[in-house]
Amino acid sequence: MNRKLRPTSPFGWMTAVILTMILLLLATSIVLGDELRIVGPERVEVANEARLLVDGLATPPVDSNMADLQAWATRLVVTVDGPPEAQPITDAELSLALGSGLRLRIFLTPDKPGIYVLVLVDPTDPAGVAVATHRLTAGGTIPPDPTPGPAPVPGPNPYPAPTQSIQQATATIRSLALSREHATTLATLYQDAARLVESAPAAIAAGTKPEIASTSDLRQWLISNGRELGLQGQYAGLADAVDRFLGQSLGATIRNVTEADAQVLRGLAWAVWEAGR
Fold it and tell me: Which domains are present in the chain?
């Protein structure tokens, strides 16, 4: 979901700019930050709003007219990636912080449990294209149907089938019997990792540090976030089968992650989901 911050009314979200006499007390040159980053909570409940603040953004002078501010805002791009079929609500406003110029705030309301990755791209930065990312975990569950009944037959696998070689390499994983809930949750974990790996080269090229830059980062990310699922020891052979597949696919050498690694993780998401059928 790529979304440019475009106004939806004559003033749009730019109406949050507080134009008061204090403008005369602030500098009128472009406000340059240090490293572009998104600051805010890392966890939020589903349907609750997470309020995020952008630091290090090169903003226009505080005494700019509305047309200049709108023109600047339309060049910013915000991308939000989340669980399959998720449609989070995003909004933004530009406000005036005393003594620090204009500040961009982003509001994100997730509609499904899972991990959301927000990416801000600022092509207006004088130092070059700047990229910042923020990972938000949405907790809570969607209320179940109050009427008990047989479990619904699962639909088609939402993850694209990988190459034949990956399908063969994940045969052991697919042969395991996971609950539908656990298979879906674990598949989402690997899909989230794939998205972070896929975005790493662009972040590195832009001079920013991605959340997962190397195969070592990837392994640590999977261990840390995998523990939070609470599935340790529930499925005999699952951890060994996944470790064997990742070891063969990623290799033992520490290196920068690539698009091929993202495809491996997507294949793993597909295989785990199949194990819950």
Answer: 2-139 (2.60.40.10), 164-229+237-275 (no CATH)
